[in-house]
DNA sequence: GTCTATAAAGTGATAGAC
DNA sequence: GTCTATCACTTTATAGAC
C-alpha cells in the first residue's frame, strides 16, 4: 500500500479506468495501454502499483465488492436483525409480515443494482467471471454473494416452514434468476419487450412483476 | 452438396474447433493459431474458407443456431399446431389442459439445453453476445430466440386472458430467467446449492421447482 | 513515484509455391 | 485446397534515467 497521496490518486484513477475497460473488453482483450490512456496515467505505473495485469484485475474486483457491500450492507443488517429476533412461535401471517418485506427489499436492491446503467460495468465483470471463473470470482462470491444468498435462504425457510434448506436454496436460485435475467440476457430482453432501455418506468414494471412472482412462488396470496 | 468433400471436411473441423476456442476465450482472446491447431488444420486455410476471424466467428454462430433449431424445432411445431387450433370459446380448465403442457415442455427443453454440459460452448457464446452484442447476436436472436419467445408469449397470453401482450412478455422474461440462471450464474448456483455438477438428478429437482413456479406465476393450482 | 524506451512474444492476415 | 514463410502490428512487462 502507498501512504503517499500521490500514489493513491494514481491507484484509484487506474482502478476506475480499468473497471471500464475490463468490463467492456474482458480480461484478455483489454489492453493496459488503453487503461493507462483512459486513466491519464503512464502505463509503466501499472506494473509499479499492481505488479501486472492480473493484479490490476483483482484490485478492480476488490474495489467493486467493497462498493456494492456499502450499498446493500444496510439492508442486510436489517435482515440480520429480523432473523435474530426469530420466534418459532409466530403464526403464518406474522411470519409473512415480518420476513416478506425485507426479502422483497433485498431483491429490489439487487434488481436496481443489476438494471442500473451506472453499474453496467460491475454486471459485465461478474457475468464474465460466472462463465469462466478465475481467482476473481472468489473475491466476488466470498466477499459478497455468500452473504446475500445466505440471507435470502434463511428468509425463504422462515416463510416456508416445510422446506428443507436445500429446497429453500433452490427456490432462492430461481428467484435470483428472475432478477438476473435483466442483466445477463439484457440484449434479448430489450428486444423481447421492445424497450430501448431499462429506465425508471421499466424498472417499476419489472419490480411489480417480480413481487407478484415471489409471492406466488412462496404461496402467499395478495 | 460440395463437389469436393475435402474442403467441406476442413470447414467443419474448423467450425467445431472454433466453437470451443471462442467459447472458452471470447472473440478477442481467441487465437486463430489455437483454433487451427485444435482442428489439426493449417492456419492459412481459415482465411481461405472464412475470409477472416470474424467470418469464422459468424460461421460458428450460424452452425450453432442450426443445431439448436433441430433440437427444439419439433417442440415448436407442436406448439404452433396447438395455437392454430385456437378456440376462444374454451373455458379456463380446457385452456390450461391445452396450453400448459406444451409451455412446460418448451421450458424443459430450454433448461436441458442450458444445463447440459454438452452445450457449454453454446451457452458461453450466447451469453457473451448478450453482454456485448455484435452482428452475431442477430444471427442468434433472429434465427432462433425470436421464435421461442413468440411461442412462449402466445401461450402465456392464452393462459392469462386478462394480460396485454407486453404483460405476457414481461412474464415470459421472468420465466426465462429461472431457466437462464442455471447457465448464466452456474458457478454461483453450484456454490449455493453445494452441487458438484448439474447432472440428471439435479436437473430433475430443478425441473420440478420450475414447474411449480410457473404454475404459481400463472395462478394455476396443482 | 513517475517517466521514456525497448525487449520479447504474441497477433491476424496473406503472398506464392504446389 | 492446402501448405510454408513472413510481414506488419500489437501486446505485456521491465530496465534505467530522473
Structure description:
Two copies of one chain form a homodimer. Chain A is an all-alpha fold and 222 residues long. Chain A has two domains: 1-51, Homeodomain-like (Arc Repressor Mutant, subunit A, Orthogonal Bundle); 60-217, Tetracycline Repressor, domain 2 (Orthogonal Bundle), CATH 1.10.357. The first copy, chain A, contains ten helices and no strands. Chain A has helices at residues 5-29, 32-39, 44-50, 53-84, 92-115, 120-131, 135-159, 165-184, 186-193, 200-217. The model of chain A has no long low-confidence stretch (mean pLDDT 93). The interface between A and B is large, with 54 and 54 residues. Chain A binds a DNA duplex (18 and 18 nucleotides) through helix 1 and helix 3.
Beta-strand percent range of chain A: under 5%
Multimeric state: homodimer
Helicity range of the residues of chain A? over 70%
Structural shape of chain A: elongated
> What distance lies between the first and last C-alpha atoms of chain A, to the nearest angstrom?
53 Å
Order of SSEs of chain A: HHHHHHHHHH
How would you name the CATH homologous superfamily of the largest domain in chain A?
Answer: Tetracycline Repressor, domain 2
Number of helices of chain A: 10
> Can you give the mean pLDDT of chain A?
93
Largest interface: A-B, 54 and 54 residues
